[in-house]
Write a structure and sequence with these properties.
19% strand, 9 strands, 5-stranded parallel β-sheet, 32% helix, 225 residues, alpha/beta, single chain
Length: 225
């Protein structure tokens, strides 16, 4: 998979990809991630990529020309499955969407900034708009990092255990069940005895029951999806 991220703040994005699972995935050549500074595609003498909005109003707007030039240049090199715009009013990122995107080959992610982008960018270049939640950030860079993490960890070979991602919360519209590790007892707090029984069918049944119980208590809305 190849992910190209268009941003006005590439330095803000680099750190998340230089450690942990994302970095290992890149070093293992399981994914390629490239950052494109939008200011490199503007003809403005001051490298400006924003301007006042027509009709008046507070906040600057990202202009269409540098975005067009960047996306067009990338598309000349390869075919992209999705051109994604990170925006608070986009489709909310959920596990099912992350699953679908992890199967794509080439993705462009445009990070919004300032008041947002010229609507013509959204109308003519963007194939999917994604939000990571009902709140507003200073820019789309952090949202893009979250999206990439959710996608990349699902690529075969990225996680040490291939089945790990399949048991994550939300994969079956259920939250993950309780998990335990050593020591078996700590300050009087004990691990459920069933987990030491070796009876795998019963353990799996217990986990399913606990997942359902936790979901019903904490996120009952998931059970209706």
């Amino acid at each position: 998979m190849r992910i190209d991220i268009i941003t006005v703040l590439p330095e803000l994005l680099k750190s998340p990809f230089e450690a942990s699972i994302l970095n290992r995935a890149i070093e293992a050549n399981l994914v390629e991630v490239y950052f494109h500074n939008l200011r490199d595609y503007t003809t403005d003498n001051y490298k400006s990529v924003d301007d006042k909005q027509f009709g008046g109003g507070a906040g600057m707007v990202m202009t269409i020309e540098p975005i067009d030039k960047c996306i067009t240049a990338l598309k000349k090199e390869r075919v992209y499955d999705e051109v994604i715009y990170m925006t608070p009013d986009g489709e909310t990122l959920k596990q099912g969407l992350a699953n679908k995107l992890s199967l794509k080959k080439n993705i462009i992610i445009l990070c919004g900034h300032y008041k947002g982008v010229d609507q013509r960018v959204r109308d003519y270049f963007i194939t999917r708009e994604i939000s990571i939640g009902d709140y507003v950030l200073s820019g789309g860079e952090l949202g893009a990092a979250v999206l990439c993490d959710a996608i990349i960890r699902l690529i075969p070979g990225v996680l040490g255990n291939e089945t790990s991602a399949l048991t994550d919360s939300f994969q079956d519209n259920l939250l993950a069940p309780p998990i335990y590790t050593k020591p078996r007892e700590y300050k009087g707090m004990k691990v459920p005895e069933l987990l030491f029984s070796g009876n795998l069918p019963e353990i799996e049944k217990w986990r399913e029951e606990q997942a359902y119980k936790r979901t019903k208590e904490r996120r009952p809305d998931l059970l209706n999806e």
